[in-house]
Amino acid sequence: FQTTSSTQRYSDELRARNKESNAFIQISSNVEKLTKDERIPFGKKDLLHWQFAVKDNICTVDLPTTCASAILQDFQGPFDATVIEKMKKAGGLVLGKTNMDEFGMGSHSTYSHFGPVERKGKDEEFYSAGGSSGGSAAAYADEELCLGALGTDTGGSVRLPAAYNGVQGFKPSYGILSRWGVIPYANSLDTVGFFSPPDRSSLILDQLKGHDPKDPTSLSPYTRERIEIINDFQQWPSFKATGVLRLRIGVPTEYNVAELEPAVREAWTKTLQSFQRRGHEVVDISLPTTKLALSAYYVIAPAEASSNLAKYDGVRYGTRPDVPDGAGGLLFSQTRDEGFGDEVKRRILLGSYTLSADAIDNYFIQAQKVRRLVQQDFNRIFRQPNVLNVDDLAAGWNEEGVDVIVCPTAPTLPPLLEQVEQMEPLQAYTNDIFTVPASLAGLPAMSMPYKNEVGHGSNENIGIQIIGQFGMDELVCHVADSAY
Ligand code: GLN
Known about the structure:
Layout: H1 10-21, E1 24-27, E2 51-55, H2 82-89, E3 93-98, E4 119-120, E5 126-127, H3 134-141, E6 148-153, H4 159-165, E7 169-171, E8 191-195, H5 201-208, H6 221-230, H7 237-242, E9 248-252, H8 262-277, E10 281-285, H9 290-308, H10 331-339, H11 342-354, H12 364-381, H13 390-395, E11 404-408, H14 417-422, H15 425-430, H16 436-441, E12 445-449, E13 463-468, H17 473-481
Parallel strand pairs: 2-3, 2-6, 9-10, 9-11
Antiparallel strand pairs: 1-3, 4-5, 6-8, 7-8, 7-12, 11-13, 12-13
This protein binds glutamine.
């Protein structure tokens, strides 16, 4: 870090820069203790002094947790989420809570009660920081603000902001990291993810993972043992034969959509060529349910959200307006009307409809079936078995299969904020086309910056996604770390 003056309060700088980007909703008093000189990047084997930012839907005992919503603007969680506990134990320091799309619903971090995240490009124009973990990604991309950040990814909310900010962002397999203390958006899809330096992702994953009895969807110690075994590259037949890790890399033909911007297609091709040059094999694969995945996601996620958000009624949770709560009173409706933003209301309506008696068969049930097909698509093409699936395990390895899939994170370059303002909701949803399939199947996926030497402030950041079989998180981190 460049230091202008060793005594210069880092907190002043952070606050000044935050005024521009609006990346943080709250800044911790921890920063008052730091001068820039004390900002030591963490050592090789631990997270000591790792100053990190936390998305504002992850509970922290010493800072409020708002989900960027008016309805939770006064909410102070009574405990640290398990991931925060683990980060602190490993020596990490929470610097603040970051801005996001309300409750995680959005792709540009503009649907926030606290105003949009604004990412200034090198051309001085303001661009989308991606969403919904846009505050975490923007804070991390600005290296003066923090050394890493936690986010959450339900349908792409770590990967898309990583792509737009030109940094690395990882969504682990569902259930590897605890969701205890993470305010749910869509429980069956929600994961905690992180933004970190490329060579640190395995270390951070190692510190954060582990069975958590407080989270009923946390993977059991038994499943974790199986995961350890399939990730042991040294024991792979191909490695044993040659002594080097030569991967089969799958390129899904269905991802080559007409809407793909030429620059993104070029980045994708160049990345694949770079893998080939290192001796990896690149093969075409087919994931026929890709197009259906997006529609299924936008049925399942709002359905779960409509159920989750029912508790914000001004009685159990939620900032309560000053209205009578007796029979015929307007307490519930007014709390929700004033507390939720438009996008959240849209999702609640959508979810309540697709779960209603008349519509459930046509929407929610169909979407669950599509989800199963998406999972089967992936299980069919990977070399490793899915450790959650007994039949798959019994069938063993599929030597014709691929080790990872490589594809773009998003079909376009980051849009200008003014373009985002003009977008119809549907247009914003289609941006998630490449990220939701891995979410529906619970797979680990990393967005890594395409190295076209454009840097953090660029308007031309492109993310390339690496997707692995369920539980192959270590492999995905390893591949991303050694990609270029
Ligand atoms: N953009 C997606 C949505 O709005 C993904 C959000 C997320 O992953 N939290 O649902």
